[in-house]
């Protein structure tokens, strides 16, 4: 796992701890198919101290004079739930799940977006984000940015103000950051941009 990692932040944990945390993210080449390298965060989630350190690193993005003050955390399905909900608890704010189409009862707000081969949609329960709320959008990986851009659009369409989009890791060279132009992007780790899932 020496790939081309840049331990961008793990915000104040120090390089040794950041490297330990990166070692808990398993690279699975060819899953679900070639040429994808799946980034499996299950070992990280199973390690209580490491998960706590990651949540704390995200929290530091939101606190203090230089932080993005937030009223609510919005997590993208599905792994964004696993990072966003404990972060919201740590910050003492609400958590809103951004779901794949058809997973929430009506009424919902929806944004459709294009994938490489087809399209998808994200939904949010109507009325769960109050007008003007400062929202942090959270997910595990920023790759091409399509889902993240749809999440930002959905939150803003519902009246929220996205103060930042935060990711455990960013895959360099896949254009995700550029696709989120106009939105502050925060990442804890940067890794080589091989195709991912």
UniProtKB/TrEMBL annotation:
A GO cellular-component term linked to this record: cytoplasm
Subcellular location: Cytoplasm
Keywords tagged on the record: Cytoplasm, Glycosyltransferase, Purine salvage, Transferase
Gene Ontology biological-process entries: adenine salvage; AMP salvage; purine ribonucleoside salvage
Reactions performed catalytically: AMP + diphosphate = 5-phospho-alpha-D-ribose 1-diphosphate + adenine
InterPro entries the record matches: Ade_phspho_trans, Adenine_PRTase, PRTase-like, PRTase_dom
Enzyme Commission number(s): 2.4.2.7
Primary localisation category: cytoplasm
Alphabetized Gene3D superfamilies for the sequence: 3.40.50.2020
Keyword Cytoplasm: yes
Pfam family, one: Pribosyltran
Biological pathway: Purine metabolism; AMP biosynthesis via salvage pathway; AMP from adenine: step 1/1
Residue ranges of every copy of the Phosphoribosyltransferase domain listed in the record: 45-169
Molecular function per GO: adenine phosphoribosyltransferase activity
Assembly and binders: Homodimer.
Protein family: Belongs to the purine/pyrimidine phosphoribosyltransferase family.
Biological function: Catalyzes a salvage reaction resulting in the formation of AMP, that is energically less costly than de novo synthesis.
Name used for this protein in its record: Adenine phosphoribosyltransferase
Source species: Xylanimonas allomyrinae
Taxonomic lineage from the root: Bacteria, Bacillati, Actinomycetota, Actinomycetes, Micrococcales
């Amino acid at each position: 796992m020496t790939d081309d990692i840049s331990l961008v932040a793990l915000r104040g944990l120090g390089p040794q701890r950041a490297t330990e945390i990166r070692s808990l993210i398993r690279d699975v080449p060819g899953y679900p198919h070639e040429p994808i390298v799946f980034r499996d965060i299950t070992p990280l989630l199973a390690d209580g101290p490491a998960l706590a350190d990651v949540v704390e690193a995200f929290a530091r993005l939101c606190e203090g004079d230089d932080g993005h003050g937030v009223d609510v955390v919005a997590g993208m399905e599905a792994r964004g739930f696993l990072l966003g909900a404990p972060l919201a608890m740590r910050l003492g704010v609400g958590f809103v799940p951004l779901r794949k189409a058809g997973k929430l009862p009506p009424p919902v707000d929806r944004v459709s977006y294009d994938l490489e081969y087809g399209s998808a949609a994200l939904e949010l329960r109507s009325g769960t984000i109050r007008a003007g709320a400062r929202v942090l959008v959270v997910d595990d990986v920023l790759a091409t940015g399509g889902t993240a851009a749809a999440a930002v659009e959905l939150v803003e369409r519902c009246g929220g103000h996205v103060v930042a989009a935060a990711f455990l890791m960013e895959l360099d060279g896949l254009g995700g950051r550029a696709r989120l132009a106009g939105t502050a992007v925060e990442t804890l780790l940067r890794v080589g941009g091989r195709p991912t899932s």
